[in-house]
């Protein structure tokens, strides 16, 4: 039921104003690659280049220390062992791929790693490139092949699984020598507070540097356990696991007690590349007037770098920070009011100036919890939620980092329940995004590498983030236009249908005499006028798909549910009432002069046409059917053969049905009141003229209104329609180069660009000239014809021709 409601909201109000997106796996590929690691302040890079030669995986470990003294130390072995042991990776060996058996390489065993987390696979593969290979988990023993080709075995005692609250995971292992070791890896914010020794400042500096570069970082630490400490840890874990009530809470308390007093070993850096066209999609959403929020659990510096790469933040964007670091220097109250004054001051200035400063907000999970804390609402400092919402309304993009899954849902709910009640859309790829997807009006699941939980709990599923552009800006635009026309056209055509019946009661003594025959009453909404609007609501394209992709700002024309508001609805209603009045009184006054014949029938004086109750109603109904169908034909922009078949076929079906219904004496009917009515009406010339005149007068106000609106104050969509009609081919942007026509007989569709030295560039306008070529020519690059080769140009005599597929059209 909830999903049905969400889909109804999506289709009836497909004007999305806020898009909430995850980062990892949604904006990025979730295809992790190990870049480097920092061990005790020394940096290690697999396959690093030294003296012009690429070092092998085994030799690179001794050669790439960035600090003096690259000797092998204990911390290095512990660090590499920690990453080979602290994970939940599974190993696959001896696999046949495309008929080729894989599993042995240069006499050394190779493995294929599988894990629910791509980060773990990347780290294990990175250690393999650095000389430490994780082999298998066999009989509860983890086996490692070290740099010296020696197999080390560790007994796996306990696994303290990762969760989004702790942001870390740990394992407790026992070496062959009987030593107990606990290895832990996790986010820097969860590791550093639990560290008691190690080169914390050096590692922290390196982590911040990697985060600024957009790399995903993890910190690694360990702790040696004595026999008594291990037994105590076992007691805590066993007691928590066997608890019948509050098991999750007791496990979290046990983990908190055990994971402490660590020695910091180092940190890792993993790269997660941005998805193809993710930046273009976000830029298009900005141009469409949609605000994009990124909700992620990553470190602030890493998420910020990704936001700049994806064009969520531009270089001109003024970043506002609402983070824990800043609230330590100032109180949360002061920071919020300072940011509020900043955005409000800029908004007042932008009202007087053409230039408007673009704001972007960064907030972390800890500060968000303080902002949303209920106790603040009753404090003397006022309501922080409203201040926070006011700041967000004036920001074009917001980044929420270090967010828990529940906080993502809280953010969506906060915006959704604000006083504007905007339509929200959430997109994610993992199970941690499900709560956010379910909370939003429209949920989008990406079928990525983290399972199908997000896709199964969403309204729509897409393979890549880039498809969101076409889904919203094209299909969303089309659906809204079609649904808006469908709803209002149904009101319009039924007002036209019922209002003449209402007027007729004043002329029949309120005797409940129907104006239309029962067959017409039954088939009006079923057969005569149903198929055209049904097809319109399925295939109408008021502008082309390419135009909507190329001009995302057209999405603004449907902003704030603009086509389903009261003014538009009243216009359609008034138009229906006007047409109904024209139908009724037009037929009434045109055939007003009637006399009784000798047999008691009414006949018009001038035309000698039988004109009774059913002739009057049939005339009005004929004008009605033709008017409402032609009205829809005037609104149709995208014509196909099926449009022609349905629209003209519906009118033809009405005529044929009326001829058969009134031309045959049906034996199963108790009455024959429609016999010969339609045929004798069409046999009269004045009836034909009356039908044409009434249809023309009924459609004229709507036509005049459309023409005047397009001429005086056209919308962006109407301007796109006009340019699309006048210029069916794409035209290159205006450049300082001069244009002239080249006329050769009947071929007048070539355009030449002067390049100087009697050389010309012939353009075909069926496809747009590449922007790089235009920039190259504008900078004077056209003087050297050989420099145009990268732009797919072909030398031809004294000129250079740019060729594109398809027929040539004039520019």
TrEMBL record:
Binding of ATP, residues: 22-24, 120, 162, 185, 216, 296-298, 402, 408, 432-433
Catalytic activity annotation: ATP + H2O + phospholipidSide 1 = ADP + phosphate + phospholipidSide 2
Regions that span the bilayer: 519-539, 569-591, 611-633, 645-669, 675-700
Gene Ontology terms, MF aspect: ATP binding; ATP hydrolysis activity; ATPase-coupled intramembrane lipid transporter activity; magnesium ion binding
PANTHER family in alphabetical order: PHOSPHOLIPID-TRANSPORTING ATPASE IH, PROBABLE PHOSPHOLIPID-TRANSPORTING ATPASE
Family matches, as NCBIfam families: ATPase-Plipid, ATPase_P-type
Protein name, per record: Phospholipid-transporting ATPase
Protein species of origin: Gambusia affinis (Western mosquitofish)
The organism's taxonomic lineage, starting at the top: Eukaryota, Metazoa, Chordata, Craniata, Vertebrata
């Amino acid at each position: 039921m909830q999903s049905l409601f969400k889909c109804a909201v999506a289709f009836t109000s497909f004007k999305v104003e806020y898009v909430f997106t995850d980062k990892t796996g949604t904006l990025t590929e979730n295809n992790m690659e190990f870049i480097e690691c920092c061990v005790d302040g020394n940096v290690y890079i697999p396959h690093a280049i030294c003296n012009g030669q690429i070092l092998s995986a085994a030799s690179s470990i001794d050669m790439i220390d960035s600090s003096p003294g690259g000797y092998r130390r204990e911390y290095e072995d512990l660090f590499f062992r920690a990453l080979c042991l602290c994970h939940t990776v599974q190993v696959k060996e001896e696999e046949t791929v495309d008929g080729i058996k894989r599993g042995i390489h240069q006499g050394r065993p190779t493995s294929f790693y599988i894990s629910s987390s791509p980060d773990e696979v990347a780290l294990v593969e990175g250690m393999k490139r650095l000389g430490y290979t994780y082999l298998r988990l066999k009989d509860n023993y983890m086996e490692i092949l070290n740099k010296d080709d020696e197999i080390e075995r560790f007994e796996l005692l306990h696994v303290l699984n990762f969760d989004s609250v702790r942001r870390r995971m740990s394992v407790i292992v026992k070496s062959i020598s009987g030593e107990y070791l606990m290895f832990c890896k996790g986010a820097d914010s969860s590791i550093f507070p639990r560290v008691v020794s190690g080169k914390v400042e050096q590692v922290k500096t390196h982590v911040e540097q990697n985060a600024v570069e957009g790399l995903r970082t993890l910190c690694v630490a360990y702790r040696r356990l004595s026999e008594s400490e291990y037994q105590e840890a076992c007691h805590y874990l066993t007691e928590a696991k066997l608890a019948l009530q509050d098991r999750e809470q007791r496990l979290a308390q046990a983990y908190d007690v055990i994971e402490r007093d660590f020695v910091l070993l180092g940190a890792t850096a993993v790269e997660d590349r941005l998805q193809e066209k993710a930046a273009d999609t976000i830029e298009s959403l900005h141009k469409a007037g949609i605000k994009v929020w990124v909700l992620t659990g990553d470190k602030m510096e890493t998420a910020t770098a990704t936001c700049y790469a994806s064009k969520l933040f531009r270089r001109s964007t003024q970043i506002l920070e609402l983070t824990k670091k800043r609230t330590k220097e100032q109180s949360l109250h002061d920071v919020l009011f300072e940011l509020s004054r900043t955005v409000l001051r800029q908004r007042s200035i932008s009202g007087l100036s053409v230039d408007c400063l673009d704001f972007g907000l960064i907030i972390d999970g800890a500060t968000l919890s303080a902002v949303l804390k209920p106790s603040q609402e009753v404090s003397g400092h006022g309501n922080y939620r409203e201040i926070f919402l006011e700041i967000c309304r004036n920001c074009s993009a917001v980044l929420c980092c270090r967010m828990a899954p529940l906080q993502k849902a809280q953010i969506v709910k906060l915006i959704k329940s604000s006083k504007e009640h905007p339509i929200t859309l959430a997109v994610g790829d993992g199970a941690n995004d499900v709560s956010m997807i379910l909370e939003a009006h429209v949920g989008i699941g990406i079928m990525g590498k983290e399972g199908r939980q997000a896709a199964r709990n969403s309204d729509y599923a897409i393979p890549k983030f880039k498809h969101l552009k076409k889904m919203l800006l094209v299909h969303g635009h089309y659906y809204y236009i079609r649904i808006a026309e469908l709803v209002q056209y149904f009101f319009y055509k039924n007002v036209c249908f019922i209002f003449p019946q209402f007027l007729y009661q004043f002329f029949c003594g309120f005797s409940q005499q129907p104006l239309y025959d029962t067959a017409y009453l039954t088939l009006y909404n079923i057969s005569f006028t149903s198929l055209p609007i049904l097809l319109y609501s399925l295939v109408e394209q008021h502008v082309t798909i390419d135009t909507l992709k190329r001009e995302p700002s057209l999405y603004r024309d449907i902003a704030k549910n603009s086509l389903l508001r009261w003014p538009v609805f009243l216009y359609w209603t008034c138009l229906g009432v006007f047409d109904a009045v024209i139908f009724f009184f037009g037929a009434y006054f045109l055939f007003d002069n009637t006399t009784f014949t000798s047999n008691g029938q009414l006949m018009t004086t001038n035309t000698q046409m039988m004109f009774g109750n059913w002739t009057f109603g049939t005339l009005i109904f004929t004008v009605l059917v033709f008017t409402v169908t032609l009205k829809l034909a005037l609104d149709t922009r995208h014509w196909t053969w099926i449009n022609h078949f349905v629209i003209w076929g519906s009118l033809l079906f009405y005529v044929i049905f009326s001829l058969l219904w009134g031309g045959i004496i049906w034996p199963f009917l108790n009455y024959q009141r429609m016999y010969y009515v339609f045929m004798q009406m069409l046999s009269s010339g004045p009836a034909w003229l009356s039908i044409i005149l009434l249809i023309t007068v009924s459609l004229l106000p709507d036509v005049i209104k459309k023409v005047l609106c397009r001429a005086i104050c056209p919308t962006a969509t109407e301007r796109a329609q006009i340019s699309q009609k006048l210029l069916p081919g794409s035209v290159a942007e205006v450049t300082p180069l001069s244009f002239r026509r080249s006329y050769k007989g009947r071929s007048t569709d070539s355009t030449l660009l002067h390049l100087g030295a009697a050389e010309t560039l012939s353009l075909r306008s069926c496809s747009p000239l590449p922007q790089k070529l235009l920039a190259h020519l504008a900078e004077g690059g056209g003087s050297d014809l050989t420099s145009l080769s990268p732009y797919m140009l072909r030398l031809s005599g004294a000129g250079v021709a740019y060729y594109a597929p398809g027929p040539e059209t004039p520019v």
